[in-house]
Write a structure and sequence with these properties.
Helix content is 41%, strand content 16%. The chain is an alpha/beta fold. The strands form 4 sheets. It has a 7-stranded parallel β-sheet with strand order 3-2-1-4-5-6-11, sandwiched between helices. It has a two-stranded parallel sheet with strand order 7-10. Helix 6 packs across helix 10. The radius of gyration is 19 Å and the shape is globular. The mean pLDDT is 96. It binds nicotinamide-adenine-dinucleotide. Nicotinamide-adenine-dinucleotide binds next to helix 1, helix 4 and strand 5.
Length: 328
């Protein structure tokens, strides 16, 4: 049987990926600094360990055929654009990738999946919110707007170099804003869709929510099940990438807020405040993945947001009930 390791399995996408791999019949070892916070893991083994530690990595890759490397020191704009975590983000994620490739290759791993990011794309191509350019070849000349993006670009190259020099197969995907239930929704590392759902869930009807910037910046968002489907298609293919995995349904952040309010049935005022923003516009370009893998998202943004809002609202209610109980 194909024995699989998922690094970052205690996280959002890794957690969903483990479920999918188990449904497909794989034997799965999961590795993460922490167990999954929101759902029990169906992995055959769950190793709680630090993948910056070479001894831990040498241990978890033993007997493994395929590695999915999703572990990274990351978060939403509030985490990666504040500048306060740059050294940790670069050091921690690069060390995980260096260890995974080095010890994985030595242990006889045949295939690696690496989760890169849309954050590798040059800032100079993403100034016009209506016409961002994120086709795969536009990555160079490189000019990511965050150190998180620079580390991802370095690691993409590292995986491709191991493929050239060490006779292993790699698959590299550039994720564009993946969202859904069972992901970080509070605490400072959450990303825009989860943060928006939380703000709307917390607000009283007729009240107010805060949005960083003027809300005119554009993004696209991909539901996590679609992301996992695309990962599996890439792994089953002969194509190494790098390739975008994202949605082309671009929306402004104000539009996203409105959509979540509609789903929640709440009418709220938006107050724009200063905050870390990232590029002015970003959208996935799916021409390459469509041509090579015949893949495109199957459902509209609204559908995924409905499921995400329902889950975040439940979490928020449970948390408020707990703090009320604690206060009484
Ligand atoms: P996540 O933060 O939920 O998961 C990452 C996991 O890595 C966490 O559970 C964390 O504990 C683990 N980790 C971090 N440092 C570790 C260490 N030293 N040892 C062991 N585990 C460690 O993030 P996610 O949203 O599931 O993202 C998964 C991957 O996809 C990441 O590499 C991320 O950079 C990439 N990505 C995600 C998005 C997105 O929109 N979610 C977009 C682009 C790229």
């Amino acid at each position: 049987m194909n024995r699989v390791l998922v690094n970052g399995a205690g996280g959002f996408i890794g957690g969903h990926l483990v479920k999918r791999l188990k449904r497909e019949g794989f034997w799965v070892r999961a590795a993460d600094l922490k167990r999954h916070e929101y759902a029990p893991s169906p992995a055959d083994e769950f190793v709680v360990g630090d993948l910056r530690d070479p001894d831990v990595v040498a241990e978890v890759v033993r007997g493994i055929d395929t590695v999915y490397q999703l572990a990274a020191d990351m978060g939403g704009a509030g985490y990666i654009f504040s500048g306060e975590h740059d050294a940790d983000v670069m050091h921690n994620s690069a060390t995980i990738n260096l260890n995974t490739l080095e010890y994985g290759t030595r242990a006889g791993v045949r295939r690696f999946f690496y989760s890169s990011s849309a954050c590798i794309y040059p800032e100079y191509n993403q100034r016009d919110p209506d016409n961002p350019k994120c086709s795969e070849e536009s990555a160079y000349p490189a000019a990511p707007d965050s150190e998180y993006g620079w580390e991802k670009l370095f690691s993409e190259r590292l995986y491709l170099a191991y493929q050239r020099n060490y006779n292993v197969e790699v698959r590299v995907a550039r994720f564009h804003n993946i969202f859904g239930p069972e992901g970080t929704w509070t605490g400072g590392k959450e990303k825009a869709p989860a943060a928006m759902c939380r703000k709307v869930a917390e607000a009283m009807d007729g009240g107010e929510i805060e949005i960083w910037g003027d809300g005119q910046q554009t993004r696209s968002f991909l539901y996590v099940d679609e992301c996992v489907e695309a990962i599996q298609r890439l792994m089953a293919s002969e194509f190494s990438g790098p390739v975008n995995i994202g949605s082309q349904e671009m929306i402004t952040i104000n539009g996203l807020a409105q959509l979540v309010m509609d789903i929640a049935g709440k009418d709220l005022r938006i107050r724009h405040i200063p905050g870390p923003l990232g590029v002015r516009g970003r959208n996935s370009d799916n021409q390459l993945i469509s041509a090579r893998l015949g893949w495109a998202p199957s459902r509209p943004l609204r559908e995924g947001l409905e499921k995400t809002y329902e889950w975040v609202a439940e979490q928020q209610e449970a948390l408020s009930a707990m703090s009320l109980a604690g206060a009484s």
